[in-house]
Amino acid sequence: MVATVTSPELAALVSTTDVDLVDVRDEREWLSGHVPGSRNVPLDTLRADPDAYLARNKPIVFICQRGVRSLTAAKLAERLGFETLYNLDGGTAAWSKSGHSLSLESVSAAA
Fold first, then answer.
1. pTM for the complete prediction?
2. Is 14 one of the catalytic residues?
3. The domain that contains 67 carries what CATH number?
4. CA 71: distance to chain centroid?
5. CA torsion 71→37→41→58, rounded to 10°?
6. Catalytic annotation, pick one of 64, 71, 73, 76
């Protein structure tokens, strides 16, 4: 099952749990600002080979600009048997609006 997580809930989750933050926006969007600690795996790349980019041994939080593409990615992962999946409600827009900063640092896409 895919659970929805709000920005404050995600901030609390990452402070207590080792989670995989996967931003499914395209690289240009991701480079313009992303949730700190997230890595960029565009949705089309993820669709082509999910097992190459997703870890099965920890919770995964999917992120995009508003929460639509990330929900698509989370449902794909769910169909493939991945467990403990989250979708960031409202995406990076909600994250930023709730007072959290966006990072400009790069992180590898490898799982």
1. 0.94
2. no
3. 3.40.250.10
4. 9
5. -70
6. 64
